[in-house]
Structures are given as structure tokens and as C-alpha cells.
């Protein structure tokens, strides 16, 4: 295939860190096939310092991986397909973007999306083995791509759940004792340029630890939500970066965490 390529600006999209292992995602867009190369100098450095380093099977990105009729499908049809777990990528071969996974200790949650197929999810499940549990969850969302502006876990048993994209399995989280927080409507103005993302980048925050969050300096309503939860806010203006398609969570990838491996979803 021929592709002009793209930026490699969002480490969250391509790298999934589980324990001491850095997993390079295969990606699903042809334009992103070579993105891993931008991170290789860093990954080699981590490898020298003891990290386990894995690259998931590279897709051939054959035409058969994509529903060729998808661009001409109506909005209603896309909604219907989404409800059946079908999107522009087919099940021809495994593909996923790392950002469709979100971690909570031994439990890892993932959505079937435009860029992550069931075969990719199954690859991850078998790869991680019995130490981790991979749960496929889904949302009322005809256009899912990356889970972190939809369902962003911000602490032990604490999750921001996008009210425009309700989670079909939310009762399971409630039963497990989780607190579900509905983030307020984003304040980003209508005329602010955005690319491949919605205003919900406001909830795409980065937790430095359980008590500190990096949040957009302009998003005062969500800042108040965090403060009420006893989480102190580190306010940074990231609006310019939002225009390239990501918030704090997209633009970062935590490599090392203090603490121990625990279960939060029993
Ligand atoms: O509005 O769900 C998520 C982040 C894209 N990298 C959205 C965009």
C-alpha cells in the first residue's frame, strides 16, 4: 500500500505499558504503520534498563482489513453496525491502537472500535495470559476510536464516564463498587479547531497519582469536579494540542508507576 504517513505525536495510541512490558500496537491506519519508529530510541533505552519489549503482529493492512463500503454507508447504517460491534475495520487480521485499552491493575478494559478489532483484543488476551483479565466493554457510540475520552479511569474504582456515550456494562462496574463520575459538558468553544476528536478531550486527563490530575486550565467545571473528589488539579493550557487530536492522556504514556499490582474489579 501507499500512504503519506502521519505524525507520531500521541504515544498513548501506540504504546501500551503493562507491568514491566512495553507493547507496541500494530495500529490500523496505513498512515500510522511506521509510527513505532519514532519511539524506538526511547524504547531501546527502556530495554537497556530492563523493560520487556514486545511488538504485536504487524498487520498486512490488506484491502480486506477494511470495509470498503464504509465511507458510503449512511449514518443510520453506521449506528446499526456499531450496535453489532462492526466498524470500518474487519476481522481479516488482528489490529488495535493502544489507546482503545484502559488499565486498572489486573483488569484491562477495551472497546471494539474503528481501529481495534476482536482479533486484536483476543491477541492481547492470549498475550497477557492469566495474570491479567481483558474485559471487552462497549458504548453507545457510532464512531469509537480510543477509549480515553469515553471511559477514563482516574483512580481505584473511580471512572469518568462520558454521558453522551453511555457504557452498556455500567451495572457491572456499579456492582463492583465503582464510583461512576459523569463529567460536565466541555467548555471548549465551538470555533476551536479539532481534528479526529470531540470536545470531550476535556475528560482526557492524566492522573499523576491518585490525588493529582493534569487538566486543561480553561475547563473550570471539570476542575471543580476533581476538587470535590479530593483530587488537586494541575492546570495547563493544552488547547493548541487539542487541535492535533488529543488531550493530556493521548499526549502522554506513563512508563513507570509506583505501587503494586492489585485487583480493583472483583
Ligand atoms: O473524542 O473520543 C478521543 C481521542 C482521540 N485520540 C474522542 C477522541
UniProtKB/TrEMBL annotation:
Catalytic activity: L-arginine + glycine = guanidinoacetate + L-ornithine
Organism annotation: Latimeria chalumnae
Transmembrane regions listed in the UniProt entry: none
Subcellular location: Mitochondrion inner membrane
GO cellular component: mitochondrial inner membrane; mitochondrial intermembrane space
Enzyme kind, highest EC tier: transferase
Entry EC no(s): 2.1.4.1
Subunit annotation: Homodimer.
Protein name: Glycine amidinotransferase
Highest taxon listed in the record's lineage: Eukaryota
Family per record: Belongs to the amidinotransferase family.
GO MF term set: glycine amidinotransferase activity
The protein's annotated pathway: Amine and polyamine biosynthesis; creatine biosynthesis; creatine from L-arginine and glycine: step 1/2
Residues annotated as catalytic: 97, 146, 250 (amidino-cysteine intermediate)
Assigned keywords, A-Z: Membrane, Mitochondrion, Mitochondrion inner membrane, Transferase
Function, as annotated: Catalyzes the biosynthesis of guanidinoacetate, the immediate precursor of creatine. Creatine plays a vital role in energy metabolism in muscle tissues. May play a role in embryonic and central nervous system development.
Signal sequence bounds: none
Any one of the GO BP annotations: creatine biosynthetic process
